[in-house]
Design brief:
26 strands; 48% strand; mainly beta; Immunoglobulin-like
């Protein structure tokens, strides 16, 4: 065993401090967003909102913008240029689409750059903020002539594949003139639609019932109504059918960007709908053929209260799985499957897709389009 003398240790410490000082004084960009957020106030639905975000480099090295993302499809952001020298600025044109929105809304523009800072310095309040990821927050209030409850539209969720499974949505008139609701068209013929007037001219309930037996999976479409109102004379309600297996994977697919250069951590919840879930349901194994994808599985847990009281059918047990993924740039074009083995005889094997293919992601996440 060898030991290091005190003078040597002091010399090593001094060298380390000097190297740290050099690193700290090394040229680096510093991104500054002006302003730091955007509140577009109260607007009517279909009134498109636009804003110019200024991005300034207050550092002493070139600021390189590698990507500008948004957190929802309702927001589009385009940078004027991607290289900003010290002391100079560029702009990002931001557009927010209010179509289909109602009430309080929010979104984010995420600027990815080579600024070495992270977290609060870049207005990023996420639990595990990435280096060089600056957040620009957007909020506002979208007014509608008609409010729909729930906001997601008409949803049918059932474990029973037989026809007649139902869901409903309530439409409330916000205008002084009376509403006369009629179904104009449907892109989801798997649903029979009934309209009930609750309060004449003011409130209606739309009930959807499955028209035939369906396989496990999701079907989506739109219901288009005429309203008789001067504002929003036509009103679209999204409709969705979810025929459930005893195990639902949340999410059923994990989407990564091909441009991602860093590994990521994700969580998959296996929600169980069978009887005596906590006592009977177990996930006994989790495998992925890609050795870079690491999966761990936790114990069977009781569901949160809202899963038992707000969801139909109610969840009876939950198993949490942590997934470590390589960067999106390293995911093969065909994606990768994570397969879980369970004790449920109806679903002994269930899988989650990891993909960089947006179409494959949407097909698994949202289901197929209904028949017209």
């Amino acid at each position: 065993m060898t030991t290091t003398s005190m003078p040597t240790r002091v010399a090593l410490l001094a060298a380390l401090l000097a190297a740290t000082a050099v690193a700290q004084n090394a040229p680096a960009p510093k991104i500054v967003l002006q302003p730091t957020s955007w509140d577009f106030g109260q607007v009517w639905q279909e009134e498109q909102q636009s804003f110019t975000l200024t991005v300034k480099n207050e550092g002493n090295a070139d600021l390189l913008i590698s990507e500008v993302r948004t957190t929802c499809g309702c927001t589009v952001a385009q940078p004027e240029r991607t290289t900003v020298p010290p002391g100079q600025t560029t702009t990002v044109k931001v557009q927010y689409d209010t179509q289909g929105k109602q009430g309080d809304v929010s979104s984010k523009v995420i600027v990815l750059c080579n600024d070495p800072r992270r977290g609060a310095d870049l207005l990023n309040d996420e639990p595990n903020p990435k280096q060089g990821e600056a957040h620009f927050k957007i909020k506002g209030f979208v007014k509608r002539a008609i409010l729909k409850e729930p906001l997601g539209g008409l949803v049918v969720r059932s474990l029973d594949p037989k026809p007649g499974q139902s869901g409903k949505v309530r439409l409330k008139n916000q205008m002084p003139e009376p509403m006369r609701l009629q179904l104009k068209s449907s892109t989801i013929r798997e649903l029979d639609v009934e309209i009930k007037e609750i309060t004449p001219g003011m409130e209606y309930e739309v009930i959807g019932r499955t028209a035939r037996e369906l396989k496990v999976g999701k079907v989506r479409g739109d219901l288009l109504f005429t309203t008789g109102l001067t504002k929003e004379p036509e009103f679209t309600v999204p409709a969705r059918i979810e025929m459930l297996a005893p195990i639902e994977l949340v999410p059923p697919v994990m989407y990564l960007l091909k441009t991602d250069k860093e590994p990521v951590q994700r969580v998959v919840n296996l929600q169980y709908y069978g009887a005596d879930g906590v006592e009977k349901f177990r996930v006994t194994d989790a495998q992925c053929k890609d050795p870079r994808i690491k999966v761990t599985v936790g114990p069977t847990q009781p569901p949160e209260e809202w899963m038992r009281t707000k969801l139909t059918p109610p969840v009876t047990a939950v198993v949490r799985s942590n997934v470590s993924l390589p960067p999106g740039a390293e995911i093969p074009p065909e994606g990768a499957l994570i397969e879980y083995t369970t004790t449920d005889p109806q679903c002994p094997k269930v899988d989650v897709l990891v993909t960089t293919d947006k179409e494959a992601f949407e097909a698994r996440m949202y289901g197929r389009w209904g028949t017209k």
